[in-house]
Automatic annotation (TrEMBL), chain A:
It comes from the Eukaryota. The modification 1-thioglycine is found at residue 103. Belongs to the MoaD family. MOCS2A subfamily. Keywords: Cytoplasm, Molybdenum cofactor biosynthesis, Nucleotide-binding, Phosphoprotein. This is Molybdopterin synthase sulfur carrier subunit. SUPFAM superfamilies: MoaD/ThiS (SSF54285). Pathway: Cofactor biosynthesis; molybdopterin biosynthesis. It comes from Citrullus colocynthis.
From TrEMBL, chain B:
This is Adenylyltransferase and sulfurtransferase MOCS3. It is found in: Cytoplasm, Cytosol. Binds 1 zinc ion per subunit. InterPro entries: MOCS3/Uba4, Rhodanese-like_dom, Rhodanese-like_dom_sf, ThiF/MoeB/HesA, ThiF_NAD_FAD-bd, Ubiquitin-activating_enz.
Length: 103, 464
């Protein structure tokens, strides 16, 4: 499994005359999130000023099967604790970590 | 020829008998040794203050034997006599003597913990051996706790080993946990993880939690020094579909081995008050990429149902809490047994065996994943994994047509039957439901799947 280049921009941007600044972030998938997406990581572009929640929404839109685990995951931005309202920056890494139960 | 077969079976039988007698003897010797040790040091919780052979105890309380045994610990400036003494006065409980618990117990016993408890209700099985390295072949079919305790005693007869041969439940957890300073979660299911964490919060015990599945592992210390508990991180349990077990998804043996070793390390650090325990952080181990990441996680949640500011979750609430209902999954490791179909849409493995012998014209679809099918399969079965069934219905149609064609040339008359099989009989029911909706009304599920086939029809059919 390897990372997938992101080919999707925001199609629903309104207005159109003003070109929004985009930032590129890398989403990292662990455990069940890997099974559901089939990949370990993905690059995506979001408008600057987007929050981790915005990133998650975009990720789920592209990998709808992730929906089932989002109620029970740890999120980490650049290996640090994050909340859904944190603003992401260019080159940030957003990790989606569902718990493993096995042993 | 016949006599040589009899002779070899006689020898095999004798080897088995001797092996079992040998392991019984070893177990009794180590139990007696620890009993003797307890008699020699009755007032110190099994911790050695001075060996009976040496009247001269040193002011710090380590006996000459202990000084020699743990010399490499004592030589560490950051651990030293104080670290070893604290360790030898502490008690640690390991819940689960499986893939995580095996290495954790081996290291905790070797390192000289004062008292080491083991909880498990399972027996050792052949398919545990690749990762549960504390057990030996002689113990297959016997209690994991007895087996693990015997190994620990062989490694270090000065540690007091306590056997809890029972399943951990809300009814016994408080009593068992209250006898230990530190709890190590080495279990394999979601309800146990919530139950253990909640019990640790109620009793104020630090929890060293490890997990492993497939090629990944996770490790955190919960409820330590004001840090978060399991529920602060995961207030809502994962959906049952996300709760995977090693028995279903597989696990590379050394992966829980590594996490279990790290659990022993964290437990030793907490009990000897050395270093910085992995609290408020989570270690993620990725075996395939050879990568370990440590991410910071949230602190204690003020809103946490169990450890939060206004939590009313105390011993009484713990004992009443239904963890199986909360997580919608069973505490025991017994696999799920779904019942999705009417009895007339199912047949037993015995009946399928009869129909097979009678040469009944049929198609058998095996809906397990391809890598399962490669391990073992019934003859003449057609592998269409459940996940790809909707795109491959054509293959079912053409297999049925082919069978019909064969049958009409033999002119036996009856309809071609369609059977579906999987590993345990859950996915096959899902597949039959789907097939019935898609125009195969007579599709039938083989109850209990290939495991049932091996149990009830063909004992030589491999289990996995």
């Amino acid at each position: 499994m390897k990372g997938e280049e992101d080919g999707f921009g925001f199609a629903d941007r309104s207005g159109g005359e003003k070109v929004e600044q985009l930032v590129q972030i890398k989403a990292l998938f662990f455990a069940r999130a890997r099974d559901l997406t089939g990949i370990n990581d993905v690059l995506l572009e979001v408008p600057s000023g987007s929050t981790t929640k915005d990133c998650l929404d975009k990720i789920v839109a592209n990998f709808p099967r992730l929906e089932e685990i989002l109620g029970c995951v740890v999120l980490a931005l650049n290996e640090d604790y994050t909340t859904e309202s944190t603003i992401v920056k260019d080159k940030d890494e957003l990790a989606i970590i569902p718990p493993i139960s096995g042993g | 020829m016949a006599s040589s077969t009899t002779e070899s079976s006689r020898i095999l039988h004798e080897i088995e008998t001797l092996k079992s007698a040998k392991s019984d003897l070893e177990r009794r010797i180590s139990a007696l040794e620890s009993q003797l040790h307890g008699l020699n040091h009755p007032h110190n919780n099994g911790v050695c203050i001075a060996s009976s052979t040496s009247p001269s105890a040193f002011p710090h309380g380590l006996s000459p034997d202990m000084i020699y045994r743990y010399s490499r610990h004592l030589l560490l400036p950051s651990f030293g006599v104080q670290g070893q003494l604290r360790l030898s006065k502490s008690s640690i409980l390991v819940v689960g003597a499986g893939g995580l618990g095996s290495p954790a117990l081996l290291y905790l016993a070797a390192s000289g913990v004062g008292r080491l408890g083991i909880v498990d209700h399972d027996v050792v099985e052949l398919n545990n051996m690749h990762r549960q390295i504390i057990h030996t072949e002689a113990y297959i079919g016997r209690s994991k706790v007895e087996s693990a305790a015997a190994t620990c005693r062989l490694i270090n007869s000065t540690v007091e080993i306590v056997e809890h041969k029972e399943a951990l439940r809300t009814s016994n957890a408080l009593e068992i946990f209250s006898k230990y300073d530190i709890i190590v979660d080495a279990t394999d299911n979601a309800p146990s993880r919530y139950m253990i964490s909640d019990c640790c919060v109620v009793l104020g015990k630090p929890l060293v939690s490890g997990a492993a599945l497939g090629l990944e592992g996770q490790l955190t210390v919960y409820n330590y020094n004001g840090g978060p508990c399991y529920r602060c991180l995961f207030p809502t349990p994962p959906p049952t579909t996300a709760c995977q077990r090693c028995a279903d998804s597989g696990v590379l043996g050394v992966v829980p081995g590594i996490i279990g070793c790290l659990q022993a390390l964290e437990a030793i650090k907490v009990s000897s008050a050395v270093g910085e325990p992995l609290s408020g952080r989570m270690l993620l181990f990725d075996a395939l990429a050879a990568r370990i990441r440590i991410v910071k996680i949230r602190g204690r949640s003020l809103q946490c149902e169990v450890c939060g500011e206004n939590s009313k979750f105390k011993a009484a609430q713990f004992q009443e809490f239904d963890y199986e209902k909360f997580t919608q999954s069973p505490l025991s490791t017994s696999p799920l047994r779904l019942k999705l179909l009417e009895p007339n849409s199912r047949i037993s493995t015995k009946e399928y065996g009869d129909r097979l012998r009678n040469g009944e014209s049929h198609v058998l679809v095996d809906v397990r994943p391809e890598h399962h099918f490669k391990i073992v399969a019934l003859p003449n079965s057609l592998n269409i994994p459940l996940a790809s069934l909707d795109g491959r219905l054509e293959e079912v149609v053409s297999a049925l047509k082919e069978e019909e064609h064969k049958q009409s040339s033999e002119s036996s008359g009856a309809d071609v039957q369609l059977y579906v099989v999987c590993r345990r009989g859950n996915d096959s029911q899902r597949a039959v439901k789907y097939l019935q909706e898609k125009g195969f009304p007579s599709a039938k599920d083989i109850i209990g799947g290939l495991e049932g086939w091996a149990h009830e029809v063909d004992p030589t059919f491999p289990s996995y």
